[in-house]
Amino acid sequence: MEEVIKLDGDLTESAWQTAKKISNFTQRELYEGEPVTEKTEVAIVYSKNELHIGIWCYDNEPEKIVAKEMTRDFNWGVDDNFEIIISPFNDNRKDNSSWKERTTTIWM
Question: Does residue 6 sit in the same domain as residue 48?
Answer without folding.
Answer: yes
